[in-house]
Design brief:
The complex is a heterodimer of chains A (245) and B (269). Chain A contains 9 helices and no strands. Chain A has 245 residues and is an all-alpha fold. In chain A, helix 4 packs antiparallel against helix 6, helix 4 crosses helix 7 and helix 4 runs antiparallel to helix 9. The longest helix of chain A is centred in the middle third of the chain and has 41 residues. Classes of the chains: A mainly alpha (245), B alpha/beta (269). At the A-B interface, helix 5 of A face helix 2, strand 6 and helix 3 of B.
């Protein structure tokens, strides 16, 4: 299948999601279930990655700023802006594309190959609305929360690393955090996050929903969805930076 | 009643179903039989709307399914129950939750009413007490029965069974066949069974459609099969020497050449 066939089927899938729910209560239940699966289950990995990202950024920035002419508060400024602008939204979403994306693709792929999706269709349920829409909505709700958490923990991790290694005392780090802060950076980071959240939920859903075959194809769909999601995240990263900054 | 008129279906250049017409009657077990690749699963998927036929019509009780809008189709689909080849139970739900799912989705019954209804259908398929088990914890035969329970919980007018006996031992297959037959009569449903199981054909085949290379090759009842002279049907049904012998015996019996109450012990001496 060529690129345009995939694009067409992807757009039809998105269009097909918009219909009146057969039962609001069950859709709400599914949305909450997905918020838990995508959000709460990813908290652990997000916490670990973001703390270490902040720590490493602090240590490496300090290593590169060898001149005494530059005040040490600059390290905190660089860590803060790096984390808010790039590391928290982009890197965390690339990780989530792997963690969440592969789970979505394999769950839907398994449902497709074991005829569970057909069973829902036969009952008269819009499977795109019932299975895909809650996943995308859940990602749009919880991924920004995870990114904000990652940014806070990343900055905190930088502070801890600076203090533990003796590079940067806490008070100087705190002073640096308040220096030249541009609130628009947060808006920009959240704009990126919403875009990525849509990508990491809808692309794996597309690949999982359209699986044909067996276990091997589910694995392939899962891998392909992660690769495509990562590429799209990086493309969107550049496009949004070029447009919004 | 379901009426199929001149159905054609192909994938790319390959024609899978060619000009198939049939009437699937209410209160009867209508069997679609045929070898693997003969097009019976595609035909069933066309009838239930999982595949769109390239041409032809499918009519459910005078309502033309092929020309319906998606919303109108939803109404018909709520009158359809389907048992899938692999049972298609939701892995993350218990037996009770699986059976209750259509009730949760489409009815406004209270919790107690739903529990009562679930217990009623589970009892009907002889699965009392299995409510809290997960699909992974039950046998293949039990999964099929849960699938049947889920399919009939909304009292559908049409029941479709895709190879209900695949992967089951002969004894369990007979239990499932008997259950399908009983439910069809009890609920007055139009039942369509897709199978290549010889036992099912002889046990429950009120109306049999034999598919061969995408075409309807033969149609009749389970009694007609024995006397059919259709070469392809005989090749498919009486594939083994044992079954050919059994057919010959039945024919001799019917012509009065051997008695039905013959003493087999004496004949075998």
């Amino acid at each position: 299948m060529n690129f345009f066939t995939h694009l067409g089927r992807y757009l039809l899938m998105i269009k097909g999601m918009f219909s009146k729910p057969e039962n609001h209560r069950l859709y709400w239940k599914e949305l909450m279930h997905q918020c838990n699966e995508i959000g709460i289950r990813s908290v652990g990995i997000v916490v670990i990655i973001s703390v270490f990202l902040g720590a490493v950024t602090t240590v490496q920035t300090a290593y590169q700023l060898i001149t005494p002419l530059i005040p040490k508060t600059v390290i905190a400024v660089i860590v803060r802006d790096n984390i808010i602008l790039e590391l928290a939204p982009t890197l965390i979403c690339v990780v989530l594309a792997g963690v969440v994306g592969s789970r979505i693709a394999s769950e839907l792929g398994n449902m497709r190959t074991s005829e569970q999706i057909d069973a829902l269709e036969i009952m008269g349920i819009n499977t795109k609305a019932y299975l895909i829409m809650p996943k995308i909505l859940a990602a749009l709700i919880v991924v920004p929360c995870l990114v904000v958490l990652a940014a806070v923990l990343g900055i905190w991790g930088g502070k801890i690393a600076g203090e533990l290694s003796g590079i940067l005392p806490s008070d100087i780090y705190n002073e640096g955090l308040l220096e030249d802060f541009i609130p628009y950076n947060v808006v920009f980071a959240l704009s990126k996050t919403y875009t990525y959240a849509f990508i990491i939920s809808s692309v794996p859903a597309y690949y999982g929903y359209h699986v044909q075959g067996g276990a091997l194809e589910i694995g392939r769909a899962s891998t392909t969805s992660v690769i495509i999601s990562c590429i799209l995240i990086l493309l969107a990263d550049y496009a949004l930076a070029a447009i919004l900054l | 009643m379901i009426e199929i008129k001149n159905i054609h279906k192909g994938f790319g250049d390959k024609t899978v179903i060619e000009d198939v017409s049939a009437v699937l009657e209410t209160g009867k077990c209508n069997l679609i039989i045929g070898a693997s690749g003969s097009g019976k699963t595609v035909l069933m998927k066309c009838i239930v709307g999982l595949f769109e036929p390239d041409s032809g019509e499918i009519i459910y009780d005078d309502a033309n399914f092929t020309t319906m809008s998606p919303e109108e189709r939803k109404q018909i689909r709520q009158q359809i129950g389907m048992l899938f080849q692999g049972s298609a139970l939701f892995d993350s739900m218990t037996v009770e939750q699986n059976v209750m799912f259509p009730l949760d989705m489409f009815t406004n019954l209270t919790g107690k009413q739903k529990h009562d209804k679930v217990n009623e259908v589970l009892e009907r398929v002889n699965l009392t007490g299995s409510n809290n088990k997960y699909p992974a914890e039950i046998s293949g035969g039990m999964k099929k029965r849960v699938g049947i329970a889920r399919a009939i919980v909304l009292n559908p007018k049409f029941l479709f069974c895709d190879e209900p006996n695949s992967g089951l031992d002969p004894k369990t297959s007979l239990v499932i066949d008997k259950l399908i037959k009983e439910i069809t009569t009890e609920y007055g449903m139009t039942t369509v069974v897709n199978t290549h199981d010889m036992n099912s054909v002889m046990e429950i085949g009120d109306n049999i459609i034999f598919m061969h290379q995408g075409r309807k090759e033969w149609e009749g009842t389970n009694n007609d099969i024995i006397f059919s002279k259709n070469e392809e049907l005989n090749k498919f049904i009486f594939a083994s020497e044992f079954l050919r012998d059994a057919k010959d015996m039945r024919m001799l019996e019917a012509r009065g050449k051997i008695s039905d109450n013959r003493n087999m012990d004496e004949l075998l001496k």
